[in-house]
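re: ur question from earlier - yeah i can do the single chain one, its not a big deal. heres the input i used so u can compare w yours
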Amino acid sequence: MFASVEELEERLTRPSEALVASLATGSGDLAVLGAGGKMGPTLCRLARRGLDAAGRGGDRVLAVSRWSDATAAAELAAHGVEIVPADLLNGDLRELPEAADVVFMVGAKFGTSASPYLAWIVNAALPARVAERYGTARIAAFSTGNVYPLSRTGSVESDPVGPVGEYAMSCLGRERVFEHAAAQGARVSILRLNYAVDLRYGVLTDIGRSVLDGAPVDVTTGQVNVVWQGYANEVALRSLADATAGTPFVLNLTGPETASVRRLAAAFGERFGVEAACVGAEAETALLNDATECHRRYGYPDVPLGTLLDWQAAWLAAGLPTSGKPTKFAVRDGRF
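and the output i got, formated as tokens:
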């Protein structure tokens, strides 16, 4: 359990022995593009701690973002991360520092249904400029499970894609752009993530908050995949060693469980001592990924679902901070 944001972030940014061993095989600076988002700060701190433990204290972690939140930037700098203010959409990418490794975390999702061009310019056009700027680096690019169609059993990497809605289509566009970069000789890994759990936000935060507040949980989207954010960030960093040219290395990134939303709500109800209210009837399909290959290659997440439920319930019951930004995991028409 955690009593503060500081304790949570210490746990999220604690590198495993496997991560340290993987980072020890590389060299040079690491640039994290989009470092100011929900996952970026903890990935940067995890990378800094991992590089230090791997004997690479002289290699920089470059956190690239607009950094409109000066406090967040200062806190990250206090942990040894170099802050690089930059407008990636409108700036000259040639002015960005050189880097041997790049983690691409930039993305536009919420609000894009009203202005779909925002999804395309951020998710598909910007990656082309990044791939040109960092064509000799290893690139780990975050994507999403939304590139798959809704399914009954969970999509694997070899399944046909079938994005629903313009957001998902633009994310597939991002993948295609990085595929082109790989065809030109860049070393690329693509990570199809859904959904990371941080305790301050995520699917479990959404469901747990509803149950705690006495609000009904819609179970039309009846199943979901989640994964501890620390594991997701670690896999992204370790995937740099597996990035390939020619054809990019593509990986589903999530937890091993396919969790029932109704059962998750009931589990929170038990922990809060209330009865969870659910509405709707479970549809036959949901956005589900099969991450068997991820777990074979990198091991199972170090925090299982039951522990995440305990941590999330305790966090909410204690009134600790949340982002107030829902995941909208139940959306089925692709409009965000």
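The first helix runs from residue 5 to 12. not sure if urs matches, ping me
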